[in-house]
From TrEMBL:
It comes from Eiseniibacteriota bacterium. One of its GO terms (biological process) is regulation of DNA-templated transcription. Residues 161-260 bind DNA. GO terms for molecular function: phosphorelay response regulator activity; transcription cis-regulatory region binding. The keyword tRNA processing does not apply. Keywords: DNA-binding, Phosphoprotein, Transcription, Transcription regulation, Two-component regulatory system. It holds the Pfam family Trans_reg_C. PANTHER family: REGULATOR OF RPOS, TWO-COMPONENT RESPONSE REGULATOR ORR33. One of its GO terms (cellular component) is protein-DNA complex. This is Response regulator transcription factor. Residues 161-260 form the OmpR/PhoB-type domain. Residues 39-152 form the Response regulatory domain.
Amino acid sequence: MGTPAPHLCKTLRVQLGCAAPQASRHDPYPRSEAVTTLKVLVVEDDARIADLIAKNLEAAGYECHQAADGGRALAEFARLKPALVVLDLGLAGMDGLEVTRRIRKDSDVPILMVTARSGEGDKLLGLELGADDYVTKPFSTGELTARVRALLRRSSGTLADRILEIGALRVDPARRAVEREGEPVPLTTLEFDLLYFLASRPGRVFSREALMEQVWGSDRVVDDRSIDSLVSRVRRKLEKNPSNPSYLQTVWGAGYRFAEPSP
């Protein structure tokens, strides 16, 4: 059998039998740009897919570890303390949604979901539970690598260093830390990005489309429910009364804004 044509190794379905691409001067994600000490935990019960993901991320310079089920994933997460988790939602037994829920009890580590095309409901629930982004099977390994890089870049802190102090709220972009009345408010990467973007522009109304582009990027197709879910998560963590928010306010028919609470 001949060697598959290069373009056939672009998607997950055909790459299962192809070697991971090697970085070159034409590679848009060269090895030298990655931080080799960063650990990525790949949670996938299909060994071929797990190996494919791991090989591509290792070629990009990351240290990859694998887990084939939810219980092992949680054990490896506690042991490794990875910088990011690539998590298949369709795990047998303890599924990816439950793994996400348990990780989010104690950690705001970036989580990249891997979902099936038929898993629209699971995707939205995963975002609701605190996952940061997703790729849909069959996916391009280049896209997955780009998503990993983007999440790690955001989680390492690339925002301006201006600390925001609004009423009882303090938002520190350098530390990616939020405090309310001196108490820490744990936020995920996406939650923090949304809050900082709105809080640094108080009073301005932004449409859902504008917020999607700001938080997920212009090349991401995300529906309105995803941004509504993200806002709801931030409100539950930040607001004393999430049903009557003082900070993240809805402007009906227009979008959302950040407003300083009344004295």
